[in-house]
Every structure is written in structure tokens, then in C-alpha cells.
Amino acid sequence: MFRRNYSSALLEEAVDQLASLPGVGRRTALRLALHLLDEPRENVEQFAGSLVRLRNDIRRCPVCGMISDDGVCPVCNDTRRDAATVCVVESLRDVLSIENTGQYNGLYHILGGIISPIDGIGPGDLNIQPLCDRLAQGRITEVVMALSTSMEGETTAYYLYKQISRFPVKVSAIARGVGFGDDLEYTDELTLGRSITNRQPFKP
Amino acid sequence: MFRRNYSSALLEEAVDQLASLPGVGRRTALRLALHLLDEPRENVEQFAGSLVRLRNDIRRCPVCGMISDDGVCPVCNDTRRDAATVCVVESLRDVLSIENTGQYNGLYHILGGIISPIDGIGPGDLNIQPLCDRLAQGRITEVVMALSTSMEGETTAYYLYKQISRFPVKVSAIARGVGFGDDLEYTDELTLGRSITNRQPFKP
């Protein structure tokens, strides 16, 4: 930050912490730290407090694993949604992405991660048993897998499929292929290859 | 965030707070909040704590107003620097910018703001008296004004000049003109006009 060693330990620490956020480099972190330094004390305390409360006080919906301030989440409680369809995703982030499309009206099930032996995450660490409990109730007719196509994502989907297949539900997966508006020239070979293999009836 | 009203009050609050940072929009704020949500509790508490400590525990150098963990700041204490020259700036940000040039080896004086009647900031709210005290000691021979060219900056510079002129010091100001590498075509008229009026002897 300073060319010579002039800085303050408190400032360095705050910059280090801010720079640990995704997409925040040290220059931006310094700008943010200097901004906070100019703010009134109460504002900074409120700012910091809201982050700690977010992390410590937020609850998970006992049904789907979504964040929820209290008990069953508003998505699970929304009677306008199709309670017979459940979309399985890795995280809340994915729920927000799918909600933004406006194309899905079923419920969700958030695993809270994917099976990753390297990171020491096994099936027992994920929100899988509650999914089986939901399926055992017999009201769900379709499970839509919306997991990533990484090795971990595929492993998780396969494991889930084995667990789910004992229930009388249809298991589907989101369509993979060349994105709308994408040039074939710039599409990776795997995606393009699969999109040819999985070609669909033409709908004019 | 959600198209329908599904969100959590805690998440909304954290996103609001993060979005109040300069250069952080609501999308980025949401990304940061979700990141913090996935972090271990201790990390989030440490993160928040470092920001509160930065704001509450940081001290100002009694000589120049620079941030300082304890007593006189390292810049004022650095015997390798030219203690006869003092550069007057608005904020710590400006000190960092000037230090980054590597072209200045004197000391600083941080006003902590500029005179701005609209914001209710008068001369008494700024770190001006300590500058007079420094000058009264008689070791400073030059004061370099490095304030902004806004109306408030000019007002502050003029006020300072009146206060300083009773001391036997040279008062200078940083050079204004067309930036290095800038096209004349895209330089604003005021800057270009002043750069012609204040033309300097050509040094081949």
C-alpha cells in the first residue's frame, strides 16, 4: 500500500480481510477500508453487525434447506407453486439463478454442497436424508437435477439417483447444449458434441 | 433479489449494507453476502471485527493527522524524509496517491476534509491549527498545496494561504496542465487554457 513501511496494522488487517472477498483485489479493498474509515462509528458497527447476524442468526428451512428467518421457508409455504416437482441444487445461489429465469414454478431442495472427497465432503455432509423424507411422503412426482457438470456434480447426481430410484418419481435433469445466442465456433467441443447427440425434434 | 417476496430479512439487511459500499451494486452485494454465508462463523466474526477495530481504534498522528496505530506516525518519524517541506492534502487517500509516484520525499499535513459550507464544514472542523503550530516551530521552509481544483478546494487553499502567509515559508501548489499521454483534443478547455497561460521553459 505504502512503498515504504508506513502503514497501520489495523488498516493492513482490514484491507487483508476485505481483499479476501470474492472479486475484491487489494486496491479495491483499500478503497473500501478508507471509505469505512470516513464513515460514522455507528454506521460501521451496523455494517459489521449485519454481516455477523447474517452468518450467525440465519436459519435453514427444515424442508428444503433454503435460508429462512424462521421455520419453513416462504417458497415451501407458497401454495401457488407446484409442490409435486422438486429441483435439486447445490446452493442458494443456484436457486436465485433459476428463480430469475421465471421459468420454474416447483419447489427446491438445496444440498448445501456437492460430494467432494478431496475436500472431505461425503454424502453424509449433505442435505440428502431430508430429500428422501420428502419423497417418502409420496406427494412429489418429479425430481429435476440441476447440479454442475463437474466430476463432483456428476458423482453427486449419480449418488442421488441411486437413493431416489427406490421412490416412484420421475427423475430428470436440466438440458445441456449450446447456449442461446452462442456461436458454434466458440462453443467447447464437449458441449457441441453432446448437443448433437442429444438433438431434439425441430419445433418450427 | 427474488422475483417474488421470498427473501430473508437478515439477507436483505446484509445486502443493503454491502451495497452501500462505493462501487458495490446489489448484484455484487448479494454475491458477497452469499459468500459470507458459506464461510465459517469465526471468519465472518473476524472479518466484521477488523472493520470495527479499524474505525474505532485507529489513532491520528498528532503532528500531521495521518492514521497511526500509536503516537507520531512513521512518515513524520522517518529521518530520511525532508522535514522542511510539507504537502497539504485533503485525505489519506491523497497521501497514498502521492507516495505511489515516488516523487515526493517531504512530510504531509492531512486536513481531514475541505471547507464546504453546504456540508456544514468550516475551517474550525479541519486540521488547520496544528499546521500553524508546525510552521511556528520554524523548521518548515515550503508548504506545497495539493488540494482539489473544485470550488471547495480553491476556497480551502485560499483560506490556508491567508493563515500561512504570516510565516516565513514559500507556498507552492502542484502543477496543473495537460496530463502526460493525454490528447489535446480530449482535454477540457479550462485545463488546456491554463496549461497555455502557465507555459514553462522548454527543456530539451
End-to-end Cα distance of chain A, whole Å, is: 60 Å
The proportion of residues forming helix of chain A, as a percent range, comes to: 40-55%
CATH architect. name of the largest domain in chain A? 3-Layer(aba) Sandwich
Lateral strand order in the biggest sheet of chain A: 4-3-5-6
Report the CATH C-level class of the largest domain in chain A: Alpha Beta
As for the CATH topology of the largest domain in chain A, it is Dna Topoisomerase Vi A Subunit, Chain: A, domain 2
Number of DSSP helical runs of chain A:
8
* DSSP E strands of chain A, number: 6
Task: Note the beta-strand portion of chain A.
Answer: 5-15%
**Poorly predicted spans of chain A:** none
Instruction: Report the structural category of chain A.
Output: alpha/beta
